[in-house]
Every structure is written in C-alpha cells, then in structure tokens.
Write a structure and sequence with these properties.
This protein has 15 helices and 22 strands. With 489 residues, the chain is of the alpha/beta class. The protein binds nicotinamide-adenine-dinucleotide (NAD). Belongs to the aldehyde dehydrogenase family.
C-alpha cells in the first residue's frame, strides 16, 4: 500500500464514537489526536467520549440487553462468523491501520489480524455449545437444574499493544454469551477498534449491542463502574490500573476479569537445544518490538551455556530491521510513544550505569525520523543485582540475561516476582520440562517455543498478573452466570 492509499484508508476509517449502531461526535465536541509513532506526526483526530456519552452508551446497551440475551445462539454465532470472514478479507487494510497507529511492523500486524479474527470464529463455535446441567440432589429430596445466562451489560477497557486482539478476546465471548458490551480502546490506538465496530455492523450486529468509546479522558468511561446496571468489567492493561479499577468494580460486586502485566522468565537449561532457544527469541522478544505482555522479560540461562546462547540470540536480534512499521521489509518498528521510549531507555541506562555489558545495542541506524520513538535491539549481560531491569516489565526489544547453576535456583529466580503470566523453558528432556513447568508460578508455560497464544487455549495469569481466563472453553464463562433452578422430585 503506498502512502496515498494509506492516507485514504485513514481518512475513510470512522473517527466517531460508536453508540446505538451510529458513529457520532462527542456530545461536547471534544476530540483527541492519534499520533504516528514513526515520526510523531498527527494521523487524524478522533471523538473523545465525555461521561455523558458513556452514560448514553450504557442506556442504549442496557435497553438492548434483554433482546440480545434472548436472540437465538445460532443467530449470534452467525454474526460472529461473518465478522471473522470480514476481518480476514480486510487483513491488508487492518494491518496497515494498526501499523500506522501503533508503529508496529507489518508482519506482526498481519499476524494480529489473524489472531484477533480467530476469536470471532472460535466464539461463533462456542456460542451454540453453552449448556447447563440437570442433577438430582444427593439426599433425594429434589432436582437441580443449572441454567447458564448472560451476565449482562459489560464494560471492557483495553491497551494499545494489540489494538484488535485485546478487544476481540473480550467482545467475541461477550456477544457469544448474549451480553452487550461497551469498549474503551487505548487512546494511542482507537482506529483499529472503530474499524472493528464497522466490521461488526456490516456483519449484521444489531444496533445498541456494542458501543466503542475512544476518549482522551479514560475516567469518563470508567465512571460507569459506579453504575449498578453494569454487571461485568473486563480489563487488559497494567497491574496498577487494573487493580485500581477492579476495586471500583468490586463495590458493586460485579463479575471482574483482569489481564494484567507480566514479567516472563525464559529458562534455558544446560540440556536445551540452543539453536531452538535462540530462534524462539525472534517471537518471544522481538514481536511488537517487545511490547507484549507475554514477552520474555528475564532470560535465565544455565551458566555452562550462557556464552553460546548469548552469541546465537544476538545473531537473531541483529537480523531484525528497524524502521517505520508501514514500510516493506521492516521487522520491528518504533515504540508506541515517548512514555515507552523513556521507560525502556531508563531501564537500560540504569543497568549500564551499574556495570552491565552490552554485546548489542547502543545506537540506531541512520535514516530514521528523529521524532520517531525508536529504540534499538539490545542485549545485556552481567547485570548487577539491584538493577531495575531485573524486576521491571521491560516492554521493549531488550534481552537481559542472568545465569543459574541448578534447577532450584532457576525456579527460585523465575518465581521471585509478584507476576505470573507467561513463562518459557528450553530443555530437550520431557520429564525435565514437565518438572519445571509444574513448579513455575505462571498461568502459561511454553516449552521449546517462543509463542504462547491460541484462541482455543485459556489465556491468563496468576498472582498479580490477573484474574480469570480469556479464550478456550473458559473464555465464554467469564460472561455467563449459572442459575440454580430447584424443583421437587
Ligand atoms: P494501562 O494500564 O496504562 O492502560 C490500559 C487501558 O486502561 C487503556 O485503555 C488506558 O486508557 C486505560 N486506563 C489507564 N488509566 C485509566 C484510568 N485511571 N481509568 C480508566 N482507564 C484507564 O496499560 P497500557 O500501557 O495500555 O498497556 C501495557 C500494559 O498492559 C502492560 O503492563 C502489559 O503487560 C499489559 N497487558 C497485559 C495483557 C494480558 O493479557 N495480561 C495483554 C496486553 C497488555
């Protein structure tokens, strides 16, 4: 797609609030700018929802709830299935749109379209498989029917790092279960979600079932957590914000799911295939320039193989080409904004000041726009204890290596964090892998691979990484409540 076509795509993507099936201006006319992270320019401006807009969206969604909740599951499923097909048919446009607003390289954006679309296909299949239960009371005194019902109007708040999939992972199961939903995308990346609203509308979603509320003032939308009509809150983002909003949701005892920050260990054992362990860095570390909640964050490498692993992993990192996300041949783009750039460079600078070695990194190639938020692929070794990079979620293309000598030490290091989202381990011995996998405190463990996402699998974390699961057979139950109907024998 050339730059004229890209501009035309941006100009034809909706920029209004999506309420009641229509794209509209904010009631106070407020807007905010969407910035291109590759050069700091303004891509477009988008309507910014006020608190009154959020209330109006909830009025509409609450009205639509009964009808949508009792719409035959097959009808709901077919809308989801058509949405899946729409997204796949529009992969190129959607990938360019994501790369424009997020800065991310096109191959990663294309992969996200497939991943995000797949939630609509998976939950189209799950919508018609919701079942209850019929039992006899153990004392013989009654019959028990368990009936699964939609929990009701739901609110979703999502981050910028997967502008389509983080929303799709919530919208698809909510709609499949029969819930209406209001979603607030991150202000860095609202265009993808507005494109998705258009896709759902064109796939036949009735008016009022979904609202999309971009805003420059997120508290305008989270104010809905104080409204008792809302029955479900689902959040993906940082632990700090998720816990704060989750506590507000708890005041109305609403059902809550939280997908929060990670600090994934990447354990390379002495008996690992080091080529496999190094190749997996391409996805586990470099996908989205490392701005991924399940990105490998702490590389824990057996001391006997550290030098060889670092040499091989450095070659993999070097093979990536930095540049504007929408440019052909680019394999990693800028970070999403000045805040991310400051954070990542701060973590590396702190480690360097404390004496770390940097076999790769330190400078950017010539020719990048000076106002882009670029950070070069970086490898750090010999990191001093106390360095912030050993405990913080990096969210950048920085591979930070520590060493261990025994499995107990590796497990102690891996679990020495409040987080427990993803983890990775590399060993050629299956029993060894299972032993370590069972001991790691994480919601997900990848063995001998750097990718860990599948709409058919339950995605989520333990400890301060979250509450609940998205995807898999489990995902739809986050939007259902079992009702016990009691009958005499
Ligand atoms: P963030 O917590 O800053 O923002 C997430 C969302 O919350 C955004 O839409 C933001 O506008 C909104 N928000 C922020 N403050 C708010 C407030 N006071 N009231 C209402 N809404 C508010 O996170 P981020 O920087 O967008 O995303 C990065 C974080 O997300 C990382 O920690 C990453 O690990 C995490 N993440 C987790 C998962 C997962 O599945 N567990 C997936 C992707 C990202």
């Amino acid at each position: 797609m050339n730059s004229t076509d890209l501009q035309q795509l941006i100009d034809t993507t909706p920029t209004g609030l999506f309420i009641g099936g229509e794209f509209t201006d904010a009631d106070n006319g407020d807007t905010f700018e969407v910035i291109n992270p590759s050069d700091g320019s303004v891509l477009t401006t988008v309507a910014s929802a006020s608190e009154a807009d959020a209330r109006r969206a909830l009025d509409v969604n609450a009205d639509a709830q009964t009808t949508w909740g009792t719409t035959p599951a097959r009808e709901r499923a077919e809308i989801l299935r058509r949405t899946y097909e729409y997204l796949i048919d529009h992969t190129e446009e959607l990938a360019y749109l994501q790369s424009a607003e997020l800065g991310r390289a096109l191959p990663d954006s294309e992969a996200e379209v497939t991943y995000g679309a797949e939630f609509f296909r998976w939950f189209a299949e799950e919508a018609v498989r919701v079942r209850g239960d019929y039992r006899h009371a153990p004392n013989g005194a009654g019959r028990i029917i368990v009936h699964e019902q939609p929990v009701g109007p739901s609110l979703a708040i999502t981050p910028w790092n997967f502008p389509l999939a983080m929303g799709a992972r919530k919208i698809a199961p909510a709609l499949a279960a029969g819930c209406t939903m209001i979603i607030k995308p991150a202000s860095k990346t609202p265009l993808t979600m507005l494109f998705l609203a258009k896709a759902l509308k064109e796939s036949g979603l009735p008016d009022g079932v979904l609202a999309v509320l971009p805003t420059g003032h997120s508290a305008n939308v989270s104010a809905l957590l104080g409204d008792a009509r809302l029955r479900k809150f689902t959040f993906t983002g940082s632990t700090e914000v998720g816990q704060m909003l989750g506590a507000k949701a708890a005041e109305h005892s609403m059902k809550v799911s939280l997908e929060l920050g990670g600090n994934a260990p990447y354990i390379v054992c002495a008996d690992a295939d080091l080529d496999v362990a190094a190749e997996a860095v391409a996805v586990a570390k470099m996908r989205g320039a490392g701005q991924v909640c399940i990105a490998a964050n702490r590389f824990l490498v057996h001391s006997s193989v550290k030098d060889e692993f670092v040499a091989k992993a450095t070659e993999v990192m070097k093979s990536f080409r930095i540049g504007p996300g929408t440019e052909d041949g680019v394999t990693y783009g800028p970070l999403s904004g000045a805040d991310q750039l400051e954070k990542v460079s701060g973590l590396v600078d702190d480690a360097m000041e404390r004496g770390a070695n940097r076999p790769l990194g330190g400078e950017l190639p010539d020719g990048l726009h000076p106002d882009g938020y670029y950070y070069p692929a970086t490898v750090l070794t010999d990191i001093a204890e106390g360095s912030e990079i050993l405990t913080e979620e990096i969210f950048g293309p920085v591979l930070a290596v520590s060493t261990f000598d025994t499995d107990d030490e590796a497990i102690a290091m891996a679990n020495n964090t409040p987080f427990g989202l993803a983890s990775y381990l590399f060993t050629e011995n299956l029993t060894h892998a299972l032993d370590l996998a069972e001991r790691i405190e994480a919601g997900m463990v990848a063995v001998n691979k750097g990718a860990l996402f599948d709409p058919a699998a339950p995605f989520g974390g333990v400890k301060e990484s979250g509450l609940g699961r998205e995807g898999g057979f489990e995902g739809i139950h986050e939007f259902l409540e079992p009702k016990f109907i009691s009958l005499p024998l």
